């Protein structure tokens, strides 16, 4: 397997090729450097992934807190709105009752006037009948 004195040849190269010691050494150094770079990249990637997860967790906490605030504000707003609507409905009912009462009073006033006219007409008729009876009686 050794072809020349002082040289190193072994089928350790890629694809089972024979390489010299210098080629092997250079290749292994390049591979070690690549592994170091990959390990560094993996470490940086892992650190970045951890930071991203931490930021997402923080965002989720803030979102949940804000969502709770918005939900509470919405609940309070609907409660206030419900109170305002109830108050307005009560006011409308009062106005409606007042209008109905006024309408009833107007109707009663008209009936009173009509009755007063009838009473006046009846008085006049009675007075006229009395006058005729007095004429007849004389």
Topology:
Elements: H1 21-137
Q: What does this protein structure show overall?
A:
With 138 residues, the chain is mainly alpha-helical. The chain has one domain (14-137). The chain is 85% helix and 0% strand. The protein contains one helix and no strands. The protein has one helix at residues 21-137. The longest helix is centred in the middle third of the chain and has 117 residues, at 21-137. It is rod-shaped. The N and C termini lie far apart (176 Å).
Which terms would index this structure?
138 residues, 85% helix, 0% strand, rod-shaped
Number of domains: 1
Largest sheet: none
Task: Count all strands and give the number.
Answer: 0
Please state roughly what percent of the residues sit in beta strands, choosing from under 5%, 5-15%, 15-25%, 25-35%, 35-45% or over 45%: under 5%
Supply Rg.
55 Å
Return the average pLDDT rounded to an integer.
84
The string of secondary-structure elements, in order, is H
How many helices? The count is: 1
Query: What distance separates the N and C termini?
Result: 176 Å
Q: Note poorly predicted spans.
A: 1-7
**Which structural category do the helix and sheet elements fall into?**
mainly alpha
Helix content estimate? over 70%
Indicate the overall shape: rod-shaped
């Amino acid at each position: 397997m050794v072809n020349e004195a002082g040289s190193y040849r072994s089928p350790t190269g890629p694809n089972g090729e024979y390489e010299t010691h210098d080629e092997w050494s250079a290749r292994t150094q390049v591979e070690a450097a690549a592994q170091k770079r990959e390990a560094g990249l993996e470490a940086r990637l892992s650190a970045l992934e951890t930071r991203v997860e931490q930021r997402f967790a923080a965002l989720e906490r803030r979102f949940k807190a804000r969502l709770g605030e918005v939900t509470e504000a919405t609940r309070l707003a609907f409660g206030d709105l419900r109170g305002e609507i109830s108050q307005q409905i009560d006011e409308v009912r009062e106005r409606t009752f007042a209008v109905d009462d006024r309408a009833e009073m107007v109707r009663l006033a008209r009936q009173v006037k009509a009755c007063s006219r009838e009473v006046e007409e009846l008085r006049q008729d009675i007075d006229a009948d009395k006058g005729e009876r007095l004429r007849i009686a004389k």
